[in-house]
Amino acid sequence: MLGRTNIVSLAEALRLLRKHQPPCPGRVVSVPLEEALNRVCAKDILSPEDLPPYPRSTMDGYAVRARDTFGASEGLPAYLEISGEVQMGEYPETGPSPGTCHTIATGGILPPGTDGVVMLEHTVTVDGQMIEVVKPVAAGDNIINTGDDIRKDGVLLSQGQLLRPQELGLLAGLGIENVIVFGIVRVGIISTGDEIVSFNESPPPGKIRDMNAINLAALVRNANGRPHFHGITHDDEQDLTDMVSEALAANDLVLLSGSSSVGTRDLGERVIEKMGPPGILLHGVAIRPGKPVIIARAADRMIFGLPGHPVSAAVAFDLFVKPVLKQLSGLASDGLPEYRTVDASLMRNLNSTSGRTDFIRIRLEKQDSGEIGAIPVLGKSGALSTMVKAQGYLIIEEHQQGLREGEMVEVRLFD
Length: 415
Fold this sequence. Notes:
Blueprint: H1 10-20, E1 28-32, E2 45-46, E3 56-57, E4 61-64, E5 78-85, E6 100-104, E7 116-119, E8 123-127, E9 130-133, E10 143-144, E11 155-157, H2 165-173, E12 178-182, E13 186-192, E14 196-197, E15 208-209, H3 211-222, E16 226-233, H4 237-250, E17 253-257, H5 265-274, E18 278-283, E19 287-288, E20 294-298, E21 301-306, H6 310-329, E22 341-346, E23 350-351, E24 357-366, E25 372-376, H7 385-389, E26 392-396, E27 402-403, E28 408-413
Parallel strand pairs: 5-6, 13-16, 13-17, 14-15, 17-21, 19-24, 22-25
Antiparallel strand pairs: 1-12, 2-11, 3-10, 4-6, 4-7, 5-9, 8-9, 18-20, 20-21, 22-28, 23-27, 24-25, 24-26, 26-28
Helix pairs in contact: 3-6, 4-5
């Protein structure tokens, strides 16, 4: 096991994680379209029809035969008689004869025989029956043809694609009522420590409320997972063993909160090693906060021992747990950056220790100059209020010994 005696770098920890993280479990379920937001497609979805099914106007104006407008200009307009109107929601059975046109609104179905739409602003009304066309159109101008959006039997959405509002709208436009999606990743959460009581209890002297369980559950939901809290276990090996075994059987991965610090280090390691090979992959990463994290695998389940300090646990979750959640969800990589970022000017000097990657909480504030300032929110890793005050964090890489005031830095924004 790497990390039992040697702390590993962040790059090495991420390499080990990628090497050992299990594939998507492959559970699939059919869900109604209105319940499919933020689910992941489990199979390619093919279009049952052309979209649009008929050619439609993309402008308010007049449906014409394009050849009737050739050469039209303000000095020598083309005169067209208005011979009809396309009503919204109706299919026009007949179209205008040569030299005439039909009034049409945006979204109206193009009448037979026409192949373009003259925009309203490119016409002059002569009277109620005649218009001047002062700018010509070519065939296909200002219309969307049958199948221009989607062709029948074409791939609408691919396996591994996240279903956002726009994807649901597209599926609705094609009458698709149900979607085959991957099952939601189930995440078991266990809090450990003799000093922990439930967040809804009044703690006696020497005890503290369990902030991590609620915080981690919210982080799991934010990453489209389904958390299940298995309870609080005190520093008893058999109790912890039973609870971890139960959580592994019921979930796709398990988070232990507070099992990686010095006081419970050996207990957490012993229990995790009992769960089966390959066991603990590492214990300790050269990052601050989050250094004492445990990453382990038991058969096809991942186990993370997260620090008890809330900020450390949140950083470790972001770095190590979230990528595994994405993998287990079946979400395909799109090659885009994983984080939303903002470039900002650092508002004070920051020191760091070479050989360690530091994550500094940042509050963003617009300055009088118009640029965005990055203000460090300093505090210990047990102070969750520092996360509340911050909008994101910056990274001081392990080869750096700090950053100077005025430097432009990249701030990763919280989800």
